[in-house]
């Protein structure tokens, strides 16, 4: 299941979405996330699904690869679905009334919309990293944070830290999977027993994982120092970010999408 997490991974392929400016993709992703919390009607959700489906099609990232990222959060989606069903009250008569358990039509509707919203949230955020390389993502974040330098915000350092943290998610998950398999080959059991026993069984997993993470961080710091990295001061870029006509057309499409969501 750890290998199913797609956030932080980059899917290298030539597509329209990959060619977009990273600054535009970051802003468009934020607009998309905001739109998910604005909508509350079925027609609006249909528009969002159509929009994200079009983006997935243009990105040339396999649908199965994107949906694979839903497996690790499947229990969270089910939990949110169940909680909304049982804790949402309505103005009409309940469909099911068993003692203190009451299920209203409004609860089923809200639970369904909440599950769809979580799925769309994960798919949309995964597309940002799947279609944007770590270097482009760093440059895009830094450009967007540059205006805040006037108040003392270290834009380059903050962008670098965010990108490194995002980039190492797949690496640490792969390391966790290797350590877990090695411990299971030595007789470790991570699935049986009560909650306390399962928590104790994670100790042989967490200790080497933390050691490996600190070792990777030390190696990365030494590699950056060996290349005379001193932060963003006086630093140049091999590729200068420029907006193109493709970004203009994409911006128009995102604007139309946002207006439709607001109207619905």
Give me some keywords for this one.
264 residues, mainly alpha, two-stranded antiparallel ribbon, 11 helices, flat
Notes on the protein architecture:
This protein has about 260 residues and is mainly alpha-helical. The protein is about 65% helix and about 0% strand. It contains 11 helices and 2 strands; from the N terminus they run H-H-H-H-H-E-E-H-H-H-H-H-H. Strands 1-2 form a two-stranded antiparallel sheet. Helix 2 runs antiparallel to helix 6. The longest helix is centred in the middle third of the chain and has 31 residues. The radius of gyration is 22 Å and the shape is flat.
SSE inventory with pairings:
Layout (H helix, E strand, L loop, with lengths): L15 H4 L2 H17 L3 H18 L3 H5 L6 H14 L8 E3 L2 E3 L1 H26 L3 H12 L9 H31 L9 H7 L1 H24 L18 H19 L1
Antiparallel strand pairs: 1-2
Helix pairs in contact: 2-6, 2-7, 2-11, 3-6, 5-6, 7-8, 8-10
């Amino acid at each position: 299941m750890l290998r199913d997490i797609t956030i932080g991974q980059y899917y290298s392929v030539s597509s329209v979405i990959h060619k977009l400016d990273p600054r535009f993709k970051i802003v468009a992703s934020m607009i998309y996330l905001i739109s998910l919390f604005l909508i509350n009607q079925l027609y609006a959700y249909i528009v969002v699904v159509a929009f994200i489906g079009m983006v997935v099609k243009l990105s040339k990232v396999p649908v199965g690869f994107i949906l694979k990222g839903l497996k690790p959060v499947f229990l969270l989606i089910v939990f949110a679905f169940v909680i909304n069903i049982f804790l949402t009250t309505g103005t009409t008569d309940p469909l099911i009334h068993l003692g203190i358990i009451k299920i209203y039509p409004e609860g089923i509707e809200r639970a369904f919309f909440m599950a769809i919203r979580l799925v769309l949230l994960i798919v949309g955020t995964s597309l940002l990293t799947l279609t944007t390389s770590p270097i482009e993502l760093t440059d895009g974040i830094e450009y967007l944070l540059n205006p805040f330098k006037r108040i003392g915000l270290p834009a380059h350092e903050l962008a670098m830290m965010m990108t490194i943290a995002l980039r190492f998610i797949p690496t640490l998950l792969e390391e966790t999977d290797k350590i877990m398999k090695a411990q299971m080959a030595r007789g470790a059991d991570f699935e049986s027993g009560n909650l306390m026993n399962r928590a104790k069984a994670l100790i042989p997993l967490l200790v080497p994982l933390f050691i490996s993470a600190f070792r990777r961080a030390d190696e990365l710091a030494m590699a950056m120092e060996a290349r005379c990295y001193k932060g963003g001061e006086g630093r140049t870029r091999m590729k200068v970010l420029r907006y193109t006509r493709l970004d203009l057309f994409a911006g128009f499409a995102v604007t139309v999408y946002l207006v439709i969501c607001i109207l619905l």
